[in-house]
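As promised in the previous annual report, we have extended the structural survey to additional targets. Below is the entry for Bifunctional protein FolD.
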Amino acid sequence: MLARTAKIIDGIAVATAIRTECKERVAALATRGVQPGLAVILVGDNAASAVYVRNKIRACADVGIHSVRYDFATDVAPDTVLSTIEELNADPTIHGILVQLPLPPQFATSQVLRAISANKDVDGFHLYNVGGLVVGDTVFPPCTPYGVVKMLEYEGISVEGKNVVVVGASNIVGKPMALMLMQRDATVCICHAKTRDLAQFTILADILVVAAGKPNLILPQMVKTGAVVIDVGINRLSDGKLVGDVDFEGVRQKASYITPVPGGVGPMTVTMLLVNTIASAERSAGE
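The corresponding structure token record, generated without further manual editing, is:
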């Protein structure tokens, strides 16, 4: 009997297909004199944040979205950033506003996120959008869980009636991921850092989504044979290697599908930011 090896879900290929659709939607808007616009605010000199912002700006250019970048010093007064957000809220050429996190300690992050208009909150972090997930009527779903949903759809993996275990209860990934899968009629369990005997939950999962930020947290003996494993984690080891939260080589021998790190969920996060920005432009154009 041949050993099972999971099909690798290629996030780059899925993202490329979606970006092709994005270009078509941008072209359709152009015929009506509208170009989607994204404003990106970066505060401080966090190296990782700078890389993420560059990637987002490059992705915008790739599909035809106009982007504007605002850079502020680490010691900037929060009111300065808040007043910039107010101006962008009122700017009809800007359809999405993104504040790159984390912010320096003088900021109350929740206050900054609340300042962004819910209609331009393309990251999906505004209280209105988060609350909208609960009732199934959000303006913009958060980009990373939205990307996971699109990957499952792309591969034809149904979540209806499936046991889904989400490991990690963050506001950015874990909680919204659970809510979005519940909307699609999955039976969802959320585990987190204080969950006792994690394996007794993960072994029941038909679909396992891991976003805990711990390398090799999920080992083969914790995964049901034939499960779909989505690894959202991204960790840099001491040797510089990037890995997820899942023991990839071990778990791929048991799973039916698995996402790699890098090249899995990561490319989807930026792509769904583009999708949300275009959707915002379409909405403002009356579509």
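The first helix runs from residue 11 to 30. The mean pLDDT is 95. These points will be discussed at the next consortium meeting with the crystallography subgroup.
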